[in-house]
Amino acid sequence: MNNEHYEALKNIIKIYLPEDVSVEDIKPTSHLTQELNVNSANLVDIVLDVEDHFDITIEDDEIEKMETVQSAIEIIEAKVQS
Amino acid sequence: MKHRVVITGMGVCAPNGIGLKAFSDAIFSGKSGIKFHQKLADLNFGCQIAGQPEIPDGMLENYFTALQLRDLQSSGIEYGMIAGVDAWTDAGLAPTDKDTVDYDSGIVFGVSLLGAEKFRSAIYLTDECKVRRLGSTSVVQTMASGISAYLGGYLGCGNQVTTNSSACTTGLESVLMGYERLRNGDALRMLVGSCNDSGPYIWGGFDAMRVLTKKYNENPEAGSRPMQEDANGFVPGAGAGALVLETLESAQQRGAKIYAEILGGAVNSGGQRNGGTMTAPNSEAVQHCIKTAVKNAGVSASEIDTINGHLTSTGMCPTEIANWSEALDLRGENFPYINSLKSMTGHCLAAAGSIETVATILELEEGRIFGNINTAHIHPEILERVAHDKVLTKTIDMPVKVAAKASFGFGDVNCCMIFKKFE
């Protein structure tokens, strides 16, 4: 996992964290909705921010796989490298 | 058993003042909130003046999370949250903690349409085949009940949380709806009020209808001239007003400050018959509404100290005065004092009724009646019915016991409420 990608994703996610979750709580294994308590409605906003930042397009079936920070990074890195 | 209903909190986001203190100072000193808007001139509007609340930098951060402020493009939600949250705070109430729902508190917060700027952005993206770029808040910023939803989430209200809509009657109708719910014992507290977006997409349709004044682009503060012979159209406005209504028992149990009691009210429609149309009132229905409100309130017409009219500055003001005079069977020196906040704010559309109700309650609270501005040429037909001094040209000190407020709207709909100083 590229650290630069990880930090960029953390920066995107932190905007959507509820008040009682801090950016320090974000770990590679964190589940976005179940552990970080990101509102599921905001997942679409995270995807749009990721697309803008990395200049990639994420397909609907890939969004469904973006459950944890790690799985999101994997999808991003597959696109960024290709 | 029917419950007595009182007002225990107020908030306002008006073109001539945000917050109760600033608004009170403005209305009693005759401060206009109407300004020239370059954007309207750039877009070739006939009417290039408007009344729009000026939100200071940093203020919205007190009402929204950073996440909510991202891509917030709904001025109505901004105004409504400021007024609604302020009213709740003014009533001595606070948001519930994150695990508690207050099932005794509800919201009726009205709008005409909401989030016009957001809807415009969404339309552009959709037409560019980028519907997936709309993000997660296009719906909640543009649904009519968006403002009630934002307020409900902020405050933790668990009773009825809804939105009413009846054009320019909306704001006052929300007061009646909240009052009825409390009177019937279905809630202990209701946050009522209304908001209206600002901007060219809201005001353009009125400009096209030629109901806005075009003659005061060089002299904005003189543009809104209710009851004047030289009135030739209204000035568009925007903003929000909010009131916390509460059963008397609940208010007394909490030891809450009581601004006034709601004695009663009425709502009706002229059916777009007998002179009524989509855009003009059926006078018979207006009079029926006022009479019914007075009857429901259990007061006699002569007890009414002051009327806060609808009085928009379109040339229909003499008709409205005649309707009040006929309905109350009062004329000359016996007619109550009458004023129109629109002389200072313009016509705040769906927000008018709630902002003007806040102004009316401040008159009861402070023992003075605000003067109209721009009153050099009172319409002669009005002076045939009403003594000149009853159309106030400046603020007077006078204990107000009973006040009437009416609003009328497109669709030929009417609402009238009667308020009394609490005893």
Secondary-structure map:
The complex is a heterodimer of chains A (82) and B (423).
Chain A: H1 3-14, H2 43-54, H3 60-65, H4 69-81
Chain B: E1 5-14, E2 17-18, H1 20-29, E3 34-36, H2 38-42, E4 49-51, H3 66-69, H4 75-90, E5 105-110, H5 116-127, H6 138-142, H7 146-155, E6 161-162, H8 170-183, E7 189-196, H9 200-208, E8 239-247, H10 248-254, E9 260-269, H11 283-297, E10 306-308, H12 317-328, E11 337-339, H13 342-345, H14 352-366, E12 368-369, H15 380-383, E13 396-397, E14 402-409, E15 413-420
Oligomer category: heterodimer
**SS elements, strand count of chain B:** 15
Count of discrete structural domains of chain A: 1
What profile does the largest beta sheet of chain B have? 11 strands, mixed
Overall geometry of chain A comes to globular
Name of the CATH superfamily of chain A? ACP-like
- Tally of helical runs of chain A: 4
Distance between the termini of chain B: 20 Å
Taken from the alpha-carbon principal axes, the silhouette of chain B is globular
Give the percentage of residues in beta strands of chain B: 15-25%
User: Based on the structure given, which CATH architecture of chain A is correct?
Assistant: Orthogonal Bundle
Features:
heterodimer; A: 82 residues; mainly alpha; Non-ribosomal Peptide Synthetase Peptidyl Carrier Protein, Chain A; 4 helices; 0% strand; globular; B: 423 residues; alpha/beta; Peroxisomal Thiolase, Chain A, domain 1; 2 domains; eleven-stranded mixed beta sheet; two-stranded antiparallel sheet; 15 strands
Please summarize what this structure is.
The complex is a heterodimer of chains A (82) and B (423). By secondary structure, chain A is mostly helical.
Describe the protein's architecture and organization.
The complex is a heterodimer of chains A (82) and B (423). Chain A is mostly helical and 82 residues long. Chain A has four helices and no strands. The longest helix of chain A is centred in the C-terminal third of the chain and has 13 residues, at 69-81. The model of chain A has no long low-confidence stretch (mean pLDDT 93). By secondary structure, chain B is of the alpha/beta class. Helix content of chain B is 34%, strand content 19%. Chain B has helices at residues 20-29, 38-42, 66-69, 75-90, 116-127, 138-142, 146-155, 170-183, 200-208, 248-254, 283-297, 317-328, 342-345, 352-366, 380-383, and strands at residues 5-14, 17-18, 34-36, 49-51, 105-110, 161-162, 189-196, 239-247, 260-269, 306-308, 337-339, 368-369, 396-397, 402-409, 413-420. In chain B, the strands form three sheets. In chain B, strands 1, 2, 5, 6, 7, 8, 9, 10, 11, 14 and 15 form an eleven-stranded mixed β-sheet that branches. In chain B, strands 3-4 form a two-stranded antiparallel sheet. A two-stranded antiparallel ribbon of chain B has the order 12-13. In chain B, helix 4 runs parallel beside helix 7 (146-155), helix 8 (170-183) packs across helix 14 (352-366) and helix 11 (283-297) crosses helix 12 (317-328). The longest helix of chain B has 16 residues, at 75-90. Chain B starts with a strand and ends with a strand. At the A-B interface, helix 2 of A face loops of B.
